[in-house]
């Protein structure tokens, strides 16, 4: 089969634009129902149980996973399995978020009486507030989708995209309202480079040869020797009281030579160094170090301090290699 490239790309763009517009329309329509849904989830004393069948069930699984990673205890329950014992997951202090475009999914309708008896608060995500599901819910989180992006207007496409985006909005806003912070995120993501960047402190990343320094009256040659013996990209400058007063990087040497030529070889460390360098305190994490190094002066090395005491130099390479 030979495909027409222009037609294929045109159709793909048409679908993406249609789904994007549906998400924008949903954002424009947000009101009290969304606010009260966030309020209920934020103040939930139990967990959020998300249910849906078919494609809505797949979206429900993703929303539950997102909420869980953002500090909102959440699980997915298949309504079909709920009819055969899984309703035991639901407790009276829980919130049930049910997803159905029509609000008439038979499997969800069949578990509604039991959910009412259990006493869980119910939020219905649907296009039809007058549906069976909508009428049984405490809050109807309504969204409007006039048609699916599917060329037959049959396969759940635009509606599932909107539900997913709406679920993300619920999770993210509720998480923020609960005061969820990067350190909390790290607690639930201990594995991989992301977790390490958020959980490892800067002192954990210091290399064996990280303690490098020269005294303020060290010669140009002494600085070069120290940078050569400990190729970290920089060394700090300490005064006689072992107080950090500056930093010298390869760039400092290069700029000195460009500015002074052969005279630079007679300079002392305190004449070459960058005064008042950016430092980071022991106990802060690798992610905070990246923010300092990339957002302040685009530096590649940073001294690590324990209060006023210098304990070593950290390279951005030591952090990035976690990935």
Strand content: 15-25%
Span from first to last CA? Answer: 43 Å
Mean pLDDT: 93
CATH class label of the largest domain: Alpha Beta
Number of domains: 2
Counted beta strands: 12
Major beta sheet, strand line-up: 2-1-3-4-5
Q: Report the helical percentage.
A: 40-55%
Radius of gyration: 29 Å
Assigned CATH architecture of the largest domain: 3-Layer(aba) Sandwich
Describe the main β-sheet briefly.
Answer: 5 strands, parallel
Number of distinct helices: 14
Unreliable stretches, pLDDT < 50, 5 or more residues? none
Structural class by secondary-structure content: alpha/beta
How would you spell out the order of helices and strands? HHEHEHEHEHEHHHEHEEHHEEHEEH
What is the CATH third-level topology name of the largest domain?
Rossmann fold
Quick gist of this model?
The chain has 323 residues and is of the alpha/beta class. It is 46% helix and 16% strand.
What does this structure look like?
This protein is α/β, with parallel strands linked by helices. Helices cover 46% and strands 16% of the residues. The protein has helices spanning 5-29, 32-42, 55-69, 79-82, 106-118, 132-136, 158-177, 182-188, 192-199, 220-229, 250-260, 269-272, 286-295, 316-320; strands spanning 48-51, 74-76, 95-99, 121-126, 139-142, 213-215, 234-238, 244-249, 274-275, 280-281, 301-306, 309-315. The strands form 3 sheets. The protein has a 5-stranded parallel beta sheet, sandwiched between helices. Strands 6-7-8-9 form a 4-stranded mixed beta sheet. Strand 1, helix 3 (55-69) and strand 2 form a beta-alpha-beta unit. The longest helix is centred in the N-terminal third of the chain and has 25 residues, at 5-29. The protein is elongated, with a radius of gyration of 29 Å. The chain starts with a helix and ends with a helix.
């Amino acid at each position: 089969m030979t495909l027409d490239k222009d037609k294929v790309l045109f159709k793909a763009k048409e679908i993406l634009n249609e789904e994007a517009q549906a998400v924008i329309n949903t954002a424009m329509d947000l009101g009290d129902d969304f606010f009260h849904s966030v309020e209920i989830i934020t103040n939930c004393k139990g967990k959020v149980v998300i249910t849906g069948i078919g494609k809505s069930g797949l979206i429900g699984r993703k929303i539950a996973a997102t909420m869980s990673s953002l500090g909102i205890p959440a699980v997915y329950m298949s309504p079909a399995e709920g009819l055969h014992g899984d309703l035991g997951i639901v407790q009276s202090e829980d919130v049930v978020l049910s997803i159905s475009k029509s609000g008439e999914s038979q499997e969800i309708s069949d578990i509604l009486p039991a959910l009412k008896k259990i006493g869980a608060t119910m939020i219905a995500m649907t296009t039809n507030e007058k549906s069976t599901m909508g009428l049984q819910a405490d809050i109807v989180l309504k969204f409007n989708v006039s048609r699916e992006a599917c060329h037959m207007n049959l396969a759940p496409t635009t509606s599932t995209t909107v539900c997913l985006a709406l679920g993300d909005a619920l999770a993210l806003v509720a998480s923020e309202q609960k005061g969820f912070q990067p350190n909390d995120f790290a607690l639930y993501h201990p594995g991989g480079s992301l977790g390490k960047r958020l959980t490892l402190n800067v002192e954990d990343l210091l290399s064996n040869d990280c303690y490098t320094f020269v005294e303020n009256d060290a010669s140009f040659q002494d600085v070069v020797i120290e940078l050569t013996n400990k190729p970290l990209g920089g060394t700090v400058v300490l005064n006689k009281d072992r107080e950090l007063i500056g930093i010298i990087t390869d760039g400092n040497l290069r700029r000195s030579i460009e500015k002074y030529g052969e005279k630079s070889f007679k300079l002392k460390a305190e004449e070459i160094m960058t005064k008042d360098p950016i430092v980071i305190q022991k106990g802060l994490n690798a992610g905070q170090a990246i923010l300092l190094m990339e957002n302040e002066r685009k530096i590649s090395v940073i001294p690590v301090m324990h209060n006023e005491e210098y304990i070593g130099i950290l390279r951005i390479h030591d952090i990035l290699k976690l990935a």
